[in-house]
Amino acid sequence: MQSFVESLPDYQASGCFSQYSFQCAPPKISKRQRVRSAPTPPYIGAPGHKCSVYYYWWRFLKLSSNYYQTCKQNGVGPCAKLYEDFGDLYKTGFRDWWQERWQLFAERPAVTVADGQSAADDPSNILTLKLDLSRGKEAIRRSLEALHLQLHYPERVATNHGSTARYSVFSRPILMTLHRQLQIYRHKTRDPGATDAEIADRVGITVNNRLEGLTERQLIKAGISIDPLYAQMRRAKNRVVQRDFRMACSLIRNVEQGIFPKADTR
């Protein structure tokens, strides 16, 4: 199977048409890889390969005990069908896994540029296109429009409607939220003795620090006990951690079915 880096045409770096597209921004794992409309990073300083919903797809699937069991049994188990596509996630890191499995998430366009062609290298500015007639007139029209945008208005390129990927992104991902839910799940499962408020502090969750509109300093100055303020903040942190833990568990259950990101509870 062609690796992800090998699939990147040389002219992609110059902003010209890329033969492969994704429903959401793919992870950046190559210096010559250009990512248009990069999403908001999951946290400050996050490396490029983590700035993608596909990284969190891989990461949440690794948290599945059912998938772990299937991998330990060489593809035999409750996630056997999914294993055929995703393979053993525990034998390699994300970058190597993505190099081998990226085509699971790639869109199949109805119109593509013929192999080896580049608008930048062709002085006549003529491209030979290949049309997949089996996709139908509407799909071809949409692909031609997308090609036009990618060639002439790359800054306007948006997510395509009607994914043709083998595994499509279920809902609009917010990477910061996925990262927070991942961190909370890890702390809850690795340190079951920690309170929810302690976990909230570790993850950096902030809550309203005012009581009846007064800050801690103002309460002390007015001679009012700050205990109710601390209790209110603790309850708020507990709610956030408990909600995100439930959602993380739901994300894991659904990713076992090849669906991500989908949370059935709040």
Report on the structure:
The longest helix has 29 residues, at 227-255. With 266 residues, this protein is mainly alpha-helical. Helix 7 packs across helix 10 (227-255) and helix 8 crosses helix 10. Strands 1-2 form a two-stranded antiparallel sheet. 42% of the residues lie in helices and 2% in strands.
SSE blueprint:
Blueprint lengths: L3 H4 L45 H10 L2 H8 L7 H7 L7 H8 L9 E3 L15 E3 L5 H16 L22 H16 L5 H8 L12 H6 L5 H29 L11
Antiparallel strand pairs: 1-2
Helix pairs in contact: 2-7, 7-8, 7-10, 8-10
Total DSSP helices:
10
Measured by DSSP, the beta-strand proportion falls in under 5%
End-to-end distance = 39 Å
Overall shape: it is: globular
Element-level helix/strand string = HHHHHEEHHHHH
Helical amount among residues, as a percent range? Answer: 40-55%
Spatial strand order of the main sheet: 1-2
Descriptors for this entry?
two-stranded antiparallel sheet; 266 residues; globular; mainly alpha
Q: What would you say about this model in short?
A:
With 266 residues, the chain is an all-alpha fold. Helix content is 42%, strand content 2%.
